[in-house]
Design a protein that fits this description.
Blueprint: H1 5-12, H2 25-38, E1 40-44, H3 60-70, E2 74-79, H4 88-95, E3 99-104, H5 110-125, E4 131-136, H6 138-141, H7 146-159, E5 166-171, H8 174-177, H9 179-184, E6 187-191, H10 204-218, E7 224-229, H11 245-262, E8 266-268, H12 278-281
Parallel strand pairs: 1-2, 1-8, 2-3, 3-4, 4-5, 5-6, 6-7, 7-8
Helix pairs in contact: 2-11, 3-4
Length: about 300
């Protein structure tokens, strides 16, 4: 897959960064379909079907089926764990010629953390990892101390093959607040969610850009990747942020046009709706996918 900057610009027909201002619903839908046809930089891989949840062991067949759906539409996939079937994700992605951002899921259980780090190192040594992510929002959740996380990053950098960039994923502002972590990372991996900060849809693209450039500035020239951003199609509103199919579609289109035109690497959250997230995030947690829980394209 490759970005087609000139084609997107000719369709949008405007130089403004509010790419879809003045577009009809039909024109926006056509933009979405062309973006899907051309492919985007990356998707966060949604592993769990209806009735499944983290902790369940997931089969290769299930991963393969979903990867085949994503394959025509992306150059990268991001995985969040290296155990319980998640380790299959980068193996199948590589088989299909898709690049991988592979994460070790770290929390407050030392035994789980040990298995995750070992799994990440093993996958990297098997050439299944293009970018290694040591933890996801661990500082945000306060599951580890900063020193504990730094030790894990040092361990991974020491044990995986040279040439594989190592980073840590967290909310964009954490990279400003925690310079030791940012300095140790080879790449800044930031999550940028205007929705979760109550931003209304109309200002969401500009707000996401501010988030990204704050993380990029903290990195002092390091490559900066948006590892998660998205908008829910259903569920509870948060201040001015309103979930709806229309807002979700337009947010996706705006995000991908910015990504293509300014060459900003973005992993969209998420690929498929996942019902298990209702417990953690309320109803809205289940509706972040571009495909629904039955693997049907929403838009």
């Amino acid at each position: 897959m490759s970005f087609r900057k000139e084609r997107y610009l000719s369709i949008s027909g405007i130089d403004s960064e509010n790419y879809i201002v003045g577009k009809t619903d039909e024109e926006i839908k056509n933009l979405f379909l062309e973006i899907m046809q051309n492919g985007i930089h990356g998707y966060c891989f949604s592993l769990y079907e209806d009735g499944q949840k983290p902790g369940d062991i997931i089969s290769e067949q299930q991963v393969r089926r979903r990867m085949e759906i994503l394959r025509p539409h992306t150059r990268w996939v991001r995985s969040f764990s290296c155990t319980e079937g998640n380790e299959i994700i980068p193996r199948i992605a590589k088989e299909y010629g898709i690049k991988t951002l592979v994460g070790a899921w770290l929390g407050n259980d030392p035994e789980v953390n040990k298995r995750e780090i070992e799994g990440l190192i093993k996958l990297a040594k098997e050439e299944m990892v293009d970018i290694a992510a040591v933890g996801n929002e661990v500082m945000y959740r306060k599951d580890l101390t900063e020193e504990e996380l730094l030790d894990f990053i040092v361990q991974v950098k020491k044990e995986i093959p040279e040439g594989i960039p190592v980073g840590y994923v967290d909310a964009y502002y954490e990279f400003s607040h925690r310079p030791k972590i940012t300095e140790l990372c080879d790449v800044v991996l930031c999550n940028c969610y205007p929705y979760w900060e109550g931003c209304n849809y109309e200002n969401s693209l500009d707000y996401m850009k501010q988030m990204y450039y704050q993380a990029k500035a903290a990195g002092n020239g390091k490559k900066t990747i948006i590892t998660e951003t998205g908008w829910p199609s259903k569920g509870e509103s948060l201040k001015g942020a309103i979930p709806s199919p229309n807002n979700a579609l337009q947010y996706f289109v705006n995000t991908q046009l910015w990504s293509a035109n300014d060459m900003i690497p973005i992993f969209y959250f998420s690929s498929f709706d996942e019902s298990w997230k209702v417990g953690a995030e309320g109803e809205v947690g289940a509706y972040w996918g571009i495909w629904d829980k039955d693997e049907k394209l929403k838009y």
